[in-house]
Design a protein that fits this description.
Radius of gyration of chain A: 18 Å
CATH class of chain B: Mainly Alpha
Structural class of chain B: mainly alpha
Number of helices of chain A: 9
Radius of gyration of chain B: 20 Å
Number of helices of chain B: 15
Order of helices and strands of chain B: HHHHHHHHHHHHHHH
Family (chain B): Belongs to the binding-protein-dependent transport system permease family. FecCD subfamily.
GO cellular component, one term (chain B): plasma membrane
Helix content of chain A: 25-40%
Organism (chain B): Aquicoccus porphyridii
CATH superfamily of chain A: P-loop containing nucleotide triphosphate hydrolases
CATH topology of chain B: ABC transporter involved in vitamin B12 uptake, BtuC
Shape of chain B: globular
Largest sheet of chain A: 6 strands, mixed
Largest sheet of chain B: none
Pfam family, one (chain B): FecCD
Protein name (chain B): Iron ABC transporter permease
CATH superfamily of chain B: ABC transporter involved in vitamin B12 uptake, BtuC
Structural class of chain A: alpha/beta
Order of helices and strands of chain A: EEEHEHEHHHEHEHEEHHEE
Oligomer: heterodimer
CATH architecture of chain B: Orthogonal Bundle
Strand content of chain A: 25-35%
Number of domains of chain B: 1
Chain lengths: ~250, ~325
Amino acid sequence: MSLVSVTDLGVRMGGRAVFSDVSFEIGAGEVVGLIGPNGAGKTTLMRALLGLLPFEGQSTLAALPAAERARLAAWMPQSREIAWPVSVETVVMLGRVPHLGTLQRPGEEDRARVAAALERMELAEMRDRPATQLSGGEQARVLIARALAQDTPLLIADEPIAGLDPAHQISTMQSFAALADVGKSVLVSMHDLGLAVRHCTRLVLLGEGRMIADGPPGEVLTPERLARVFGISAWYKVTEEGPVYQPLEVLR
Amino acid sequence: MRIALPLLAVVAALFMVSLLTGPADIGIGESLAALLSGGDGPLALVMREIRLPRALLAVMIGASLGLSGAAMQGYLRNPLAEPGLIGVSGSAALGAVLAIQTGLAASFALGLPLAALAGALGGVLLVMALAGPRGTSLTLILGGIAVSSLAGALTALVLNLSPNPFAASEIVFWMMGSLADRSMTHVWLALPFMVLGLALLAGLGRGLDALTLGEDAAQAMGIDMVRLRLMLVIGTACVVGAGTAVAGAIGFVGLVVPHMLRPLVGAHPGRLLWASALGGAAMVLLADIAVRVVLPERDLKLGVLTALVGAPLFLHLILRLRRERI
């Protein structure tokens, strides 16, 4: 079953095409890594398929009414904005907004989801602290927990692990894998190709104004593509410890 | 919720004090009896026609300024935002000033407030046209600044060209804001706008909560940003326009009250709405009692006092903020 399907998606900004003719589907139980150099349009692609900006082509998510879409897909923007010094728990509880009626207050199930998300992101101990007083990496975890609490079949996250310490980068990617194990899916943009190869079931490579490749990590990141799109070389091997991927040199 | 009851109690107490404050020296029991039982005596007249509308307007205007201030700060995610930002109070003042200048205000009792309401309507339509139907918070601020400065410039122009010094001084005094000598007619004129505006603004809580995470995240959580902004602008225009129409410009309440109460509601933008409505009512009641007690002979203007008290209060908040940031 496809959770989202985009067909011939294109976005123009200020008269210039950011990308065009992007088509792919995300089914249940996938962790799809969206990779590409700066300016390739990763954020724009995610926002377009959610219907947050004007685009050409089709996206099944953007076609839905806003309230329904919010129960199908959670969105974690790259800008880690927490405007007010509200408690960590309050921020995470915002993830329940799409599930509440107009005057309905959070119930038992909402609190359980929030507690699980806090636990998952190792935030239970700081649940009462003002979110604005946490470090950047901790705030990122709070916002990931917020998106997890939304409890949607699809989670779309824009560079969620940027700025996290190595342990939390790995555990966040493992959380995404755990979501995939229970049939949910994640679309995650990232720059760390090593983590992408290890933890994603599939990679979508964006660059040169189009989608260059879509498939299993080992097949997408060929040396020729790396050289052409990123201008780097890398070492890649499937070891006993799983696939290991290490970018090496800048080629140009 | 923990602070709702204490705030409500404070508002009720100040409302009673406001009813009992005035140049006519009347005992507590007598005044309340006259208020409740009515009759044709001078006492009942003072209570029902002078003090009651004054206290009621203080509550209505205070609640309006507090609520719209909290909503504006929540929408813009900026603690320095205030209801006057979208230019409604400026354009309402322009309408009133034109009414005074042209003599409309003198020709019939509701001439001034009706002209001010017309000014507010014109201002809000212009802001919405400038900001565009799908614009962001930035276009709304810019539109508001454009309308505010245009209204300010036109008001200054009217003053500048005023051939009549009495009209000019009347304009200046009116713009300072006051609740003195208002009647129940003013209450009935402002009430429908304020009820509509307060209802629109009170419905914003959930959306403003979601906006804590930014416009993109809120939109992806199913919040209709276009609708939210429309409700905010129309609601603010209703309450601020009606408030300015009957009482002139009363500054600082919409800025300071949400700021003071924010820590007490855990910074929750939705909860801050109602708390600020109550807090605003309390602040305007208190200020209006103070203008009668401090200088009973001199007709001290309410807007002057709120600014005098508000500015140092704000300074104190800034200093506290600076300490916290270090």
